[in-house]
Design a protein that fits this description.
Strand order of the largest sheet: 2-1-5-6-7-4-3
Number of helices: 4
CATH topology: Pnp Oxidase, Chain A
Shape: globular
Number of domains: 1
Distance between the termini: 24 Å
Mean pLDDT: 95
Largest sheet: 7 strands, antiparallel
C-alpha cells in the first residue's frame, strides 16, 4: 500500500476513534470534475462503511464508477491525517440499511439516538456503501 509514516494498525484506530471524525469523500461527477462531501463512517474490519442516497452526486458517482477516496484528519496540533483510496460496492438490503444506519448513527449521535437514525436512513433510495481500501497515505504528527 501507499506511503505511511504511521505504525501498523494506526489508520484503523484513527478512523475508529471517538468522538467520531467525519470523512471527506471524493468522487468524480459524470463530466469528470471532482466532488467532495462529508460522510459519517464506521469500520468493518479494514473496510470503510457509510450510507448515502443513490440520488446524490456521490451516490450516482459510486454507482457509475466505484473508485473513491476518503480523507480523515485531526485538526489539532501536531496534526495527523489518513487518506484512503479504494473501490466501493453498494447494498440496498433493508436489513443492512437498518443495521448500518443504526450503527453509524450511534457513532456520531450517541447510543440514545442510534435507532432513530437507523430507521430514518433505512429507506430507499439510501444505500450502504462498502469501500475496500487499496491504498493508504498516512502521517502522524505532521508538525513534529
Amino acid at each position: 500500500m501507499g506511503y505511511t509514516s504511521a505504525p501498523d494498525g494506526w489508520w484503523q484506530a484513527f478512523v475508529a476513534a471517538l468522538p467520531a471524525r467525519t470523512a471527506k469523500l471524493a468522487v468524480t461527477r459524470a463530466d469528470g470534475s471532482p466532488h467532495v462531501a462529508p460522510v459519517w463512517v464506521d469500520l468493518d474490519g479494514d473496510d470503510i462503511v457509510f450510507m448515502t442516497s443513490a440520488d446524490t452526486i456521490k451516490g450516482k458517482s459510486i454507482l457509475r464508477d466505484g473508485r473513491v477516496a476518503l480523507c480523515f484528519d485531526d485538526e489539532r496540533p501536531p496534526f495527523s491525517f489518513v487518506t484512503l483510496t479504494g473501490t466501493a460496492t453498494t447494498s440496498t438490503d433493508p436489513d443492512e440499511l437498518q443495521a448500518w444506519g443504526t450503527r453509524i448513527g450511534g457513532r456520531y449521535m450517541g447510543a440514545d439516538q442510534a435507532e432513530a437514525y437507523g430507521r430514518r436512513n433505512a429507506v430507499p433510495p439510501e444505500m450502504v456503501v462498502r469501500v475496500t481500501v487499496t491504498n493508504v497515505v498516512a502521517k502522524v504528527d505532521v508538525a513534529d
